Structure formats: C-alpha cells, structure tokens
C-alpha cells in the first residue's frame, strides 16, 4: 500500500474579538476560557493539486483509495516534561481532557499576511488589522458567521469530525475521507456533500462558553513551521 502526503494551501488562527491577522505564524493556538472567553480557532484549506495530478496521470487509481487522514503535530508531543505546566506566559494553561471539533467552512476567505498572535488588539494599536480575522473573511467583507462558525447554524458550516485528547499533548489525527473524496468528485463518495472553502478546528461549544481563571490552550505546528512537523493529510 502506498502512502501519499498532501499539505495545506493556507491557514490562519481566528481570535475572538480581535481584528489582527496572524496567518504566517509557525504555530496555532486553539483556546477557550477566562472571564472574557478568549476563544481562538484555526482554519485552513487543503491543497488538492498533488492528489489530482496523481489521479489524472494514473499514478493513483481512485478506486483503490482507502482513506484520507488529517494529521497535525502538537507542539509538546515530544516534550512530556511540559505536561501540566504553564504555556508561554503566566495566564495560559495547557489544556487537557477535551475534544476538538473539525468543521466545514462555506464562505470564501483570504489568508492574509500577518504574524502576531494577540488576544487584545486594543493593547497593540499599531499592528495592522487585516483579514482573515474573527470578524472579516476578506478586507472589508464580514463573515456571515463570525469566527467562520456559529453553533446551531443552518448554513453549510457543520461539524464533520472530532477527536478526544486525554493529556493534551497528543497529535491530531482525524479521518476526512468522505470530505476529500467529495472534493475530488470521486464516484461513489458518501457522507459529506456540502460546499467547502476549507476546514476549521475548535473546542466544543460548551468549552468555548466556559469562564476560567486562565486561558486553556492546545497548540499545533502550522504550514509555516520551520520544522518538518508541517501538517498534512
């Protein structure tokens, strides 16, 4: 059996109530908590060109495709000494015992070119405010659903996968076979059938609503990592 890797086309973290773009950051932090509910989500699109070329050239027989699995490396996957400790500052705890949900995005969006990862843009007035961010999908174009997803929405922004994390240092692995096969327009594709402009990762709705003393977060390498831990499927 052959294994092929394809990578992300673009990605960005969306921070609740913040207009700053941080798409070029090598790390994404998905979070919840504090009295201000400092929620952040990670959205991305996958690059289908490699798979499409392999199928069109005959290198891959689409009838033999078994599965597509989204894989992202946790930033502390190989640092057990960091389990249960603070993250990069005194107000951020590394989350444990939680679920992440994978949702579809049904609105087109631009990646942007920002880098800084902040939770309060009022403290950083000189940083450029640009899309994509929590409010806008493109410059001067608001999301229909802020943060690219609203719980209970009747639109195409729906949950298509999830994963439970026990300690919080596990790598992410979610089966997205139906999603990718649908985008590839393969005959016999079942399951997911919606319009898609990418995927997003978030804590479950009940976690995003929690108020905690410190921000609770889990972090993964993004497509802009300077290591070989680049996410793929």
Overall shape: globular
Structural class: mainly beta
Largest pleated sheet? 5 strands, antiparallel
Helix/strand order, N-terminal first:
EEEHEEEEEEEHEHE
Share of helix, binned: under 10%
Beta-strand fraction estimate: 25-35%
Strand order of the largest sheet: 1-3-11-6-9
**Terminus-to-terminus distance:** 16 Å
Radius of gyration: 18 Å
Whole-number mean pLDDT: 91
Number of strands: 12
Summed up, the helix count is 3
Which segments are poorly predicted (pLDDT under 50) over 5 or more consecutive residues? none
Task: Provide an overview of this structure.
By secondary structure, the chain is mainly beta. The longest helix is centred in the N-terminal third of the chain and has 9 residues, at 49-57. A hairpin with a 2-residue loop joins strand 7 and strand 8. The chain contains three helices and twelve strands. The protein has helices at 49-57, 177-183, 205-208, and strands at 8-15, 27-33, 40-46, 69-72, 92-94, 98-104, 136-138, 141-142, 159-165, 172-175, 199-203, 215-221. 34% of the residues are buried. It has a five-stranded antiparallel beta sheet with strand order 1-3-11-6-9. Strands 2-12-5 form a three-stranded mixed beta sheet, with no helix packed on it.
Short description:
By secondary structure, this protein is mainly beta.
């Amino acid at each position: 059996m052959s294994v092929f890797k394809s990578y992300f086309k673009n990605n960005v973290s969306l921070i609740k109530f913040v207009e700053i773009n941080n798409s070029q950051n090598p790390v994404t932090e998905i979070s919840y908590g504090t009295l201000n509910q400092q929620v952040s989500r990670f959205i991305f699109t996958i690059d289908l060109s490699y798979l499409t070329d392999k199928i069109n050239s005959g290198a891959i027989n689409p009838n033999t495709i078994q599965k597509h699995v989204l894989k992202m490396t946790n930033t502390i996957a190989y640092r057990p000494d960091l389990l249960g400790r603070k993250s990069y500052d005194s107000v951020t705890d590394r989350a444990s015992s939680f679920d992440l949900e994978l949702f579809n995005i049904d609105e087109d969006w631009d990646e942007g070119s920002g880098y800084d990862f902040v939770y309060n843009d009022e403290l950083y007035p000189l940083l450029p405010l640009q899309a994509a961010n929590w409010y806008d999908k493109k410059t001067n174009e608001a999301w229909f659903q802020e943060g690219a997803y609203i719980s209970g929405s009747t639109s195409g922004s729906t949950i298509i996968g999830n994963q439970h994390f026990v300690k919080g240092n596990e790598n992410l692995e979610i089966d997205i076979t139906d999603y990718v096969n649908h985008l590839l327009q393969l005959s016999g594709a079942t399951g997911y059938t919606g319009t898609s402009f990418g995927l997003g990762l978030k804590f479950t709705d009940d976690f995003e609503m929690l108020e905690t003393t410190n921000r609770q977060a889990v972090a993964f390498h993004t497509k802009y990592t300077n290591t070989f831990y680049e996410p793929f499927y």
